[in-house]
């Protein structure tokens, strides 16, 4: 096997759960091979550089082996090698997310029953005691 479709390879390398999800990923423009956007039928060979954007995470990997069937995760991990720059960027983003305050942290504690009644009265335009 000299070449494999990029959508099949993404599925086999476990970047997408299903083949159709891998195809959608490529069609949405989240996958670049050699720095340019590709179609799902584009074939990859060992040595190709593939850039994959999954949500906010951008991964740049070099294809080391080919597979057109999905296998165990240990086998899938041998199909590519992530570039050091990509790994550092991904780890930095993970650390930033971990250190960031969760949404709603600045809202404070939940209002008491009395505070809630005051808020409701304020919203209705009435005065409360």
Descriptive notes:
The protein is α+β, with helices and mostly antiparallel strands. The chain has one domain (4-96): RNA-binding S4 domain (Structural Genomics Hypothetical 15.5 Kd Protein In mrcA-pckA Intergenic Region, Chain A). 37% of the residues lie in helices and 19% in strands. A hairpin with a 2-residue loop joins strand 2 (31-33) and strand 3 (36-37). Helix 1 crosses helix 2. The chain is elongated and about 80 Å long. The model has no long low-confidence stretch (mean pLDDT 92).
Write the layout of secondary structure elements.
Blueprint: E1 4-5, H1 6-12, H2 19-27, E2 31-33, E3 36-37, E4 43-44, E5 49-54, E6 57-63, H3 73-76, E7 80-82, H4 84-99, H5 113-124
Antiparallel strand pairs: 1-4, 2-3, 2-5, 5-6, 6-7
Provide key terms for this protein.
single chain; 129 residues; alpha+beta; Structural Genomics Hypothetical 15.5 Kd Protein In mrcA-pckA Intergenic Region, Chain A; 5-stranded antiparallel β-sheet; two-stranded antiparallel ribbon
Total domain modules: 1
Q: Show unreliable segments.
A: none
Total DSSP E strands? 7
The order of strands across the largest sheet is 3-2-5-6-7
Cα-to-Cα separation, first versus last residue: 81 Å
Number of helices: 5
Largest sheet: 5 strands, antiparallel
Quick one: CATH superfamily?
A: RNA-binding S4 domain
User: What's the helix-strand series?
Assistant: EHHEEEEEHEHH
**Portion of residues within helices:** 25-40%
Q: What is Rg? A: 24 Å
CATH class: Alpha Beta
